[in-house]
TrEMBL record:
Pathway: Carbohydrate degradation; pentose phosphate pathway. The lineage of its organism: Eukaryota, Viridiplantae, Streptophyta, Embryophyta, Tracheophyta. Residues 14-210 form the Glucosamine/galactosamine-6-phosphate isomerase domain. Belongs to the glucosamine/galactosamine-6-phosphate isomerase family. 6-phosphogluconolactonase subfamily. This is Probable 6-phosphogluconolactonase. It catalyses: 6-phospho-D-glucono-1,5-lactone + H2O = 6-phospho-D-gluconate + H(+).
């Protein structure tokens, strides 16, 4: 069982101030791990990176239902987009751990990234781990897939909590008034009897630092 992470919260006047501080935080860790380990492993999130604007097209498709065995969609989904993609990603991570590019946590045996830059949705989800979803309890896999994400698109792959929480450092970056309620629930004193949100399950081996802009922190 990992020790509880050291948690810091910093609030910035503007998103720009936050970005400058986050860049310096990342650069300092890059310098530190570069000297200590000879490499720096950093994980980034999606969300506001506009992945939802990607459009993927099939070159052809058979005129059958999407779940029909003859469907090209089903084939690609079963073998690649769901299991396949998660397994490929996990295999790739295993190679990088075995070759020493990614460190390995002595405590958990999972990959230990130097820094994970995580966002958080207005429902408190991190990565593609959503409130109340059974994948939040995955304890063995490094990468898993979700077929029913409540936020589109429904089909995603995601790091699991053991990988997230084996990280040396995590920056949880949250901007905008639309997330003020969930920030209040996550960091305030209310809701102690409620089931913890995914963002509250984030607990790296080293430091957890919340980077908030004023709007996101407005209800604290
Ligand atoms: O779906 C996702 O959402 C979260 C939060 O995204 P944001 O647009 O509200 O900042 C993101 O961190 C995660 O990587 C992504 O898959």
């Amino acid at each position: 069982m990992a020790a509880t992470a050291e948690k810091k919260v910093e609030v910035f006047d503007t998103e720009e101030d936050l970005a400058v501080s986050l860049a310096k935080y990342t650069a300092d860790l890059s310098d530190k791990f570069g000297k200590e380990r000879g490499s720096f492993t950093v994980v980034v999130s999606g969300g506001s990176l506009k992945w939802s604007k990607w459009h993927v097209f099939w070159v052809d498709e058979r005129v059958v239902p999407k779940d029909h065995d003859d469907s090209n969609y089903k084939l690609a989904f079963d073998l690649f987009l769901s299991q396949g993609a998660a397994d490929d990603y996990e295999t790739c991570l295993k190679h990088l751990v075995n070759s020493g590019v990614i460190a390995k946590s002595e405590a958990s045996g999972f990959p230990k990234f130097d820094l994970q830059l995580l966002g958080m949705g207005p429902d408190g989800h991190v990565a593609s781990l959503f409130p109340g979803h059974p994948l939040c309890k995955e304890s063995k896999k490094w990468v898993t897939h979700i077929l029913d994400s409540p936020k589109p698109p429904p089909e995603r792959i995601t790091f699991t909590f053991p990988v997230i929480n084996s990280s040396a450092n995590i920056a949880l970056v949250v901007c905008g008034g639309g997330k003020a309620d969930v920030v209040q629930r996550a960091l305030g004193n209310s809701g102690k009897n409620e089931e913890p949100l995914p963002c509250q399950l984030v607990s790296p081996e080293g430091e957890l630092k919340w980077f908030l802009d004023k709007a996101a922190a407005s209800k604290l």
